[in-house]
Amino acid sequence: MLFRGRKFFWGLVCLQVALTTTGHAEIVLHGTRVIYPSNAREITLQLSNNGTAPSLVQAWIDDGNAKSTPDETNVPFIITPPISRVEATKGQTLRVTALPTTSQLSQQQESIFWLNVLDIPPKPEGRTQQGQTTTTSNNFLQLAVRSRIKFFYRPIDLKENIDQLSDKVEWKINDQYLMIKNPTPFFLTITSIFQGSEGHKTDLLQQGLMIAPYSEDKIKLKNKNLADMSFVYINDYGGRVEHPIKF
């Protein structure tokens, strides 16, 4: 079953009768984020089926609305193939092509979209009887599992260097809050902000924080000890890099 309408999409579930359940992701994306340079005609993405059975894969890009279906999205990119069958232990290449309407995106800063990959497993097989494999009855719940990662469109004429992003972040204290300013044209994803020395660190973030270009955010401090503070951000390769906070 492919998800084309909102009524059938949400829950990411193919429901027949909830007596037995199968639902674990076997399709794995190679990477945790995608960078699309503005001068690229297309880019390729790799995914693998780590399972023991084939999976049907549906891929699409949305503009930030996690509830949108493939038919509802309106983005300046297309994915080929949008639907594919990936055999067990095999891989699949997805090609992402920019449409001419990408010229309407900002050329002074990054734009963010989201890449979705829906893993639709096959109907489970029943027990083998007299040398034959029978299919399961209609009494089962089949779960389709969706992966969703960030997709950045990056203009090539940006004057800033992404490798200097961590040094450009501006930090200051305002009463009991730590103010974080991103003065660059890049999105900044922070996974942790540590306060305290090694062995006594406290993470001020309960969940990750993404700060848009030329924007700022704030978090509440645990205490007034500012001597040992650092933050962990995600680089272009999906790696987590710790960097000291300088006031």
TrEMBL record:
InterPro entries: Ig-like_fold, PapD-like_sf, Periplasmic_pilus_chap, Pili_assmbl_chap_C_dom_sf, Pili_assmbl_chaperone_bac, Pili_assmbl_chaperone_C, Pili_assmbl_chaperone_N. One of its GO terms (biological process) is cell wall organization. Gene3D superfamilies: Immunoglobulins. Keywords: Chaperone, Periplasm, Signal. GO terms for cellular component: outer membrane-bounded periplasmic space. It is found in: Periplasm. Pfam families: PapD_C, PapD_N. Residues 27-158 form the Pili assembly chaperone N-terminal domain. Its main location: periplasm. SUPFAM superfamilies: PapD-like, Periplasmic chaperone C-domain. Residues 1-25 form the signal peptide. The keyword Cytoplasm does not apply. Residues 180-241 form the Pili assembly chaperone C-terminal domain. It comes from the Bacteria. The keyword Electron transport does not apply. Belongs to the periplasmic pilus chaperone family. PANTHER family: FIMBRIAL CHAPERONE YADV-RELATED (PTHR30251:SF2), PILUS ASSEMBLY CHAPERONE (PTHR30251). This is Fimbria/pilus periplasmic chaperone.
